């Protein structure tokens, strides 16, 4: 008798959970209500989450934030984590277990902002708060003012979009670039394809849904061609200045092809980039570390990437960037 590989069975259980949430959310025509319902319950599979970090809340004015500091954290080495949720859902609380895991596996303090959400606060409010959080983490630690030795920037889904857009914003204002960028199932191109990517099995998004999300997020302030909305639309002279970047996505998700294309664009421009496609997992699979063994391995891959980037002198990174894994 044929049996499923354990990893496939794990993924199927999580995908069924997500599909059930989306089916129940379809009972309302209000996309904002539906998305917030899905995001608030996305990780609630019944699994018991693990925590091990000390936390400290921070008030940044337009938004709040929180430090996650693991035992024996390496002083001065920070991560800024931007949570996902479709630009109008999610919070530090919905992602608390993942942020805590990233801090523990990397051995670094992580600062995560509760940025303002659409539609109450349309573009560019969330991006402005992400920038405020990043600038803060460059010059502060949990205990107060501190010039960070290194700062990595990362986010999942919509948070990945804001992270990549923030790099473009940082370049435009000649501020300090992050030492590394990690995109976890990140949205890098808001310009919707005509159809679902071949082979995708992703109930979280489709072209019509992405168009409706864009309308709620942008509200006519700008268009999806703006690189601060679609980082993949940025000019080459901007993209070539990106920091070393790791991009992770599932083979089954709607965003797969745009993440692959973005990694290829960075690679062609000489940016140090590591692309990894994880087979048959749900969108933002990192949020399920107790359910999916691949989630923990993906976080370990990010930790190894950060260590590898710091082990290579800055003037040597361009030559390393010719490798696309």
From TrEMBL:
GO terms for molecular function: hydrolase activity. It comes from the Bacteria. InterPro entries: AB_hydrolase_3, AB_hydrolase_fold, GDXG_lipolytic_enzyme, Lipase_GDXG_HIS_AS. Residues 79-286 form the Alpha/beta hydrolase fold-3 domain. Keywords: Hydrolase. Gene3D superfamilies: alpha/beta hydrolase (3.40.50.1820). Belongs to the 'GDXG' lipolytic enzyme family. This is Alpha/beta hydrolase fold-3 domain-containing protein. It comes from Sphingobium ummariense RL-3. The lineage of its organism: Bacteria, Pseudomonadati, Pseudomonadota, Alphaproteobacteria, Sphingomonadales.
């Amino acid at each position: 008798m044929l049996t499923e590989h354990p990893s496939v069975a794990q993924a199927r259980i999580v995908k069924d959970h997500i599909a059930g949430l989306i089916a129940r959310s379809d009972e309302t025509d209000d996309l904002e209500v539906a998305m917030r319902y899905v995001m608030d319950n996305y990780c609630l599979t019944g699994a018991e989450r693990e925590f091990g970090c000390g936390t400290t809340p921070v008030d940044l004015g337009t938004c709040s934030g929180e430090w996650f500091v693991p035992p024996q954290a390496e002083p001065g080495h920070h991560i800024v984590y931007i949570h996902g949720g479709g630009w109008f859902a999610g919070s530090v609380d919905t992602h608390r277990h993942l942020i805590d895991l990233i801090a523990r596996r990397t051995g670094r303090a992580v600062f995560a902002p509760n940025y303002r959400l659409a539609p109450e606060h349309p573009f560019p409010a969330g991006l402005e708060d992400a920038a405020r959080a990043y600038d803060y983490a460059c010059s502060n630690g949990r205990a107060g003012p501190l010039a960070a030795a290194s700062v990595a920037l990362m986010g999942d889904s919509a948070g990945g979009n804001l992270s990549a857009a923030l790099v473009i914003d940082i370049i435009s204002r000649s501020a300090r670039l992050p030492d590394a960028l990690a995109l976890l199932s990140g949205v890098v191109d808001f310009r919707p394809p005509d159809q679902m990517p071949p082979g995708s099995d992703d109930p979280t998004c489709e072209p019509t849904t992405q168009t409706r999300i864009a309308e709620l997020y942008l509200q006519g302030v700008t268009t999806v061609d703006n690189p601060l909305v679609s980082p993949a639309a940025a000019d080459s002279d901007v993209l070539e200045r990106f920091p070393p970047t790791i991009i992770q996505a599932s083979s089954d998700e709607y965003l797969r092809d745009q993440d692959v294309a973005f990694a290829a664009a960075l690679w062609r421009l000489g940016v140090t980039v590591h692309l990894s496609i994880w087979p048959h997992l749900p969108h933002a699979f990192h949020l399920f570390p107790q359910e999916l063994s691949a989630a923990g391995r993906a976080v370990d891959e990010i930790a190894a990437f950060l260590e590898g980037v710091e082990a290579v002198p800055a003037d040597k990174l361009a030559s390393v960037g010719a490798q696309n894994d």
